[in-house]
Design brief:
Elements (H helix, E strand, L loop, with lengths): L1 H6 L8 H6 L16 H4 L12 H28 L4 H16 L2 E2 L5 E2 L4 H8 L1 H18 L8 H23 L6 H27 L6 H38 L1 H6 L5 H7 L4
Antiparallel strand pairs: 1-2
Helix pairs in contact: 4-7, 4-8, 5-6, 5-7, 6-7, 6-8, 6-9, 7-8, 8-9, 9-10
Length: 274
């Protein structure tokens, strides 16, 4: 990929803003990952402020807002029903904040980070997770310079909506099977992470289609750049969050039982109870 970037024509990527001034212009996506371009080097941490054309920023906000409203409704409902779930909510939110704040450089010239959304998705569902992610992403954009306010909708859609929805669908499919409970958590957390980056790649490809091959070519390029780091990172994230879930089950099984995260027999079997 580095070779591809060097072979690319001299096209300045320093101005996603200038190239977005005319939204019809296509950019050479290979140049986005030129290692001498510090702004573009960081886009995978979250999509950075000012990187997307305003039309796409508006579209992603339009998609994100109804999900957040429904998530707030569900969050209020679950807290009215069981206030003791609040500490678990804080734990899952804390893991999302810490893991998604990590910045891990890739040999391809991009940066990656875990998402941490799988645990919250399993315990509280995708809509409440979207609210937690929105809060996390807002704090990160304001205080850590990760992401930005204009692209907050796009980052919420990828990390807080699509990733958790994909993870939740997988969780529902595996929940009542004979697959080990902790293996299910691992699979859900790892795949929720990967679907986040599929979505991020699509968002970038839609905004910056390649000169040759259009959106699909750009999508393949972004995914190829991210995959080197993101696939092993998703596996590690799945292992870590499965171990965290195991600790929660052993420490506070009553909360997991009340939330009906898994069938009672699975939880009691994991605790060694008859």
């Amino acid at each position: 990929m580095a070779g591809a970037a060097r072979a690319a024509p001299v096209t300045r990527c320093s101005s996603p803003r200038s190239s977005t001034a005319s939204h019809r212009e296509r950019v050479n996506t290979q140049v986005l990952f030129s290692k001498d371009n510090q702004a573009c080097y960081q886009i995978i941490m979250h999509i950075m402020e000012g990187f997307l054309p305003w039309q796409w920023c508006v579209l992603w906000w339009i998609i994100a807002l109804p999900c957040l409203v429904f998530g707030i409704y569900q969050l209020k409902k679950i807290l009215e029903k069981d206030r003791e779930a609040l500490p678990l909510l804080g734990v899952t939110g804390g893991f999302i904040f810490i893991l998604s704040s990590l910045k891990l450089p890739s040999v391809t010239g991009s940066c990656s980070h875990p998402t941490g959304t799988g645990l919250s998705t399993i315990c509280f569902g995708p809509w409440i997770t979207s609210v937690i992610c929105a809060i996390v992403l807002l704090f990160q954009s304001l205080f850590l310079a990760h992401g930005g306010l204009s692209v907050l909708g796009a980052n919420i859609v990828s990390m807080g909506i699509v990733g958790p929805l994909a993870g939740y669908a997988i969780y529902r499919g595996l929940r009542n099977t004979r697959i080990n409970m902790y293996l299910t958590v691992f699979i859900v957390c790892a795949l929720a992470d990967l679907f986040t980056y599929l979505t991020t790649s699509l968002e970038l490809a839609l905004a910056y289609p390649a000169e040759v091959g259009g959106i699909m070519s750009s999508f393949a390029l972004f995914m190829g750049v991210f995959a080197t780091t993101q696939v092993p990172l998703a596996i590690v994230e799945g292992v870590v969050l499965a171990l965290v879930f195991k600790y929660i089950v052993q420490l506070k099984p009553d909360i997991i039982l009340r939330l009906k995260v898994f069938p009672e027999e699975k939880i009691r079997a994991a605790l060694g109870e008859a």
